[in-house]
Amino acid sequence: MRMITFFLVGLTVHVIFFLSIFDIYFTSPLVHGMTPQATSLAPPASRLVLVVADGLRADSLFTLHPDGSSRAPYLRGVIEERGTWGVSHTRVPTESRPGHVALIAGFYEDVSAVAKGWKENPVEFDSVFNESRHTWCWGSPDILPMFAKGASGDHVYTYTYPAEEEDFASTDASRLDSWVFSQVKSFFQSAKSNSSLKASLLEDKNVFFLHLLGIDTNGHAHRPMSQEYLENIGLVDTGVAEMVSQVEDFFGYDGRTAYVFTSDHGMTNWGSHGAGHPSETLTPLVVWGAGVHSAQRVTESQPYDDGYLQDWKLEHLRRVDVSQADIAPLMASLIGVPIPVNSVGVLPLLYLNNSDLFKAESMYTNAIQVLEQFKMKMTQKKETTLSFLFTPYQLLTESKQAEFIHKARILIQLEKYEDAISLCQSLISRSLEGLVYYHTYDRFFLGCSVVLGFVGWTSYVVLVILKTHASLNRHPSVLKQTPSHTLARLCMCVTVVITVFLLIQRSPATYYIYCLLPVPVWYSVLKESGTLTDLIQSAPSLPLWKCFGYFVLVAFGIELLVVSFFYRAMLTVGLTLLSIWPFLSGLFGKAKFRSLSWFLGCLFLSLFPLMPVVGREPDIHLVTCAGLLTLFTSLCYLWSSRQRTPLHLSDRQQFVTQMLHVAVCAYVPSLTHSSLQQKQGLPLVNQIISWTTLGSSMLVPLLSSTRLFHRLLSIFLSLTATYLLLSTGSEALFPPVLSWLMFVWINIEQEAMLAQGVSGRQELSTIDFSANIDIAKIRQLKLDDIRRSYFFVFFIITAFFGTGNIASINSFDPASVYCFLTVFNPFIMGGLMMWKVIIPFIIVMCTFETIQVATQLSSRSLFLIVLVISDLMALHFFFLVQDYGSWLDIGTSISHYVIVMSMTIFLMLLSVVTHILTSQRLILWRRPKLHFP
């Protein structure tokens, strides 16, 4: 098989393995075809006002000032006198879109749907807005349109400000909230003179939605403890008070309006959200008005041991916590509209101030609504599964469903409302468990198929390595071996059986891919079985103890990398162990200076995983220091190589220009953040410099010499300049330290080759990336090459997690991109943050490319070992998913699997980019073009 064919096949296989996780774990939870369920009794409210203060933390609203006063006196008064309060618990990812979907539609949007669109609906879903008679919305253009588009008919009206107004450099982001309150005021004033609008407003089952983005914007820009964030809470409180007065005045104080005040997510102290920290998942909930209990004073202790009641001075008032999805059935119950058909929320009865009959009927409606989803999911699964293979959910069979419903109706008729409510809650609980059961029904089957394919692919790559890159004794009969016709026929029969089985079950198209992929993979493995014979015959001549030692060390190393995904500090342990490698291998006696440099480089790099993740403690002065360190490191590179490879005038001019550019880029973040702090906006010159630097970062190195260290230095300077512009603190020091260690790694590998007795070793100063490689000098793999490959994987993981860069993507913090733009744009901002993560990758990849050239190996040989190591890690995470019980732990393991698979696919593609960067040749692999037999 040619290398290009192998590359494309390997890329396809890994993309399939990557996508499989979405069919196994991230499929949409929605089912369609259910009948909307509503309570037949008259609702307590004719209209509902929903106010969502985006990014508002629970403690920020409920905590009092040191003098005992509240920063939100109106809402505090509601809590103490007229309403019911609690904490709404959100789920990961704590972002605006899934938060609003949970609030208004009552279900937790799956990750794949979140990734498909921000303003558009990737899936159709029902919501309280859709079930209402009319809904009027004011707020952000990022949130409102998705509910208007998802609604049937034309009864959801949205009023949004321009997207350009969402500017983190704004002098006062609270003006976004002021705009909303002003628009609501104008709306009700104009309604008094507009007869048709007034008639619509006086109808029942209406909803008014106020989306307030100012708090979130100020939190990102200034942090939640800032004066801007806290004052914005006071502005919202005042605005809510005035809005309530306007609404009550318009409707003549008829007592038929219900109010819900909450938030979609919280925010960390460093101004980000997206993860599962309590500051992100705990949001306030205050409900008052028609049909809602007034403040309930309690004397006994409440069932909450988090200490918040005492901190907030609210221990004397009943606290009612809910899951975020529970708010949707609460709102539907208050105004008498059907609960959204896909809602998984449970009606929080303690908020309702109504008769026991109304509560029992509402809970019964909630139970039937959830049961309808269960029944539809069960029917769908039953229709696509052979009858003798179908295993129903035993706790809620059809007979038990009928029993539950009948018993609940009897209890309500007998006026045993407490018992009826308890029974309905039990039915909801079982229905939700059954939904999960059928939602994950095919998980084990698909997981086995993927694992089978994964093991087969890894086995095939190992056999390819042994066959083409290892010095095995070739058996003459094996070399002439042809594929067995019996094996081919067997594989065809298996393919037909699997296809027929999937056709009968009417499985989705993707199931065919996951289930059929292992067949050709294992066919290729079995076809190469002769290589195992060669290995067995060569066993007596192999250093078995050394092979076993390498196997144990690599197994330990892979386990250490897997654990480092959960605990970043394990990278520190790994780097500390790597630092003593020259002393254990005997290299110290032959290259003391390089060994000490390696030792110090590993120790300095090991400090970064112990530091807080990106964005927590911004310190722009460290960015300037990183720029100075970059210039110092560059001068050291030039000084160390000037005697052996003198610089041409053009190269000298380019390096001086690049170093001056780095100095400018080290100063731009300081100037930008100073301007933003003074509320003067983003300077245009800084923005031009930033985007120009980004655009030229991959092109400028191609202008430099292709001599090894000259090209690497140009790449390092170009990428570091961009990295400085995307940094806010200590992470800016990471590329210079990493590059120093990579420079030492290249040098010390030369000494390792000398220690191995490799003949024809080329001096580093004479290596040119663009030179043709003599095929006669390309050597076979040795055991030490396994170490080189492991070092590469370890440094790639360190580049990814070393500064906690992933946290800046998972927990959205726009501070890193302020040099480029300040107007909210999730896709551009996310892309810039992703590029920041990629930059250390490229530095390590270019180093690995250099080591392949310097150690006289073909590009594919070491990369195949890297492929095996990364695949073993991914397989490890795939198995870990099966061992965890809680949703969050499963999600964590799945995310790590996705990261490893993404990294593997990315490395395969990035190898092309780095080769172009180093050699300027637009080909996939270095010459000569070797072929697999």
From TrEMBL:
In its UniProt entry, what is this protein called? GPI ethanolamine phosphate transferase 1
Keywords tagged on the record:
Endoplasmic reticulum, Glycoprotein, GPI-anchor biosynthesis, Membrane, Transferase, Transmembrane, Transmembrane helix
Highest taxon listed in the record's lineage: Eukaryota
Q: Pfam families recorded for this chain?
A: Phosphodiest, PigN
One GO location term (cellular component):
endoplasmic reticulum membrane
**EC number of this enzyme:** 2.-.-.-
Q: How does it sit in the membrane?
A: Multi-pass membrane protein
Report domain GPI ethanolamine phosphate transferase 1 C-terminal positions: 433-886
Free-text function comment from the UniProt entry: Ethanolamine phosphate transferase involved in glycosylphosphatidylinositol-anchor biosynthesis. Transfers ethanolamine phosphate to the first alpha-1,4-linked mannose of the glycosylphosphatidylinositol precursor of GPI-anchor.
Give one GO biological process term.
Answer: GPI anchor biosynthetic process
* Pathway listed: Glycolipid biosynthesis; glycosylphosphatidylinositol-anchor biosynthesis
Q: Which InterPro entries match?
A: Alkaline_phosphatase_core_sf (IPR017850), GPI_EtnP_transferase_1 (IPR007070), GPI_EtnP_transferase_1_C (IPR017852), Phosphodiest/P_Trfase (IPR002591), PIGN_N (IPR037671)
The species is Seriola dumerili
| TM region(s), chain numbering | 6-26, 444-466, 487-504, 510-526, 547-567, 573-589, 596-614, 620-639, 789-807, 827-850, 862-882, 894-917
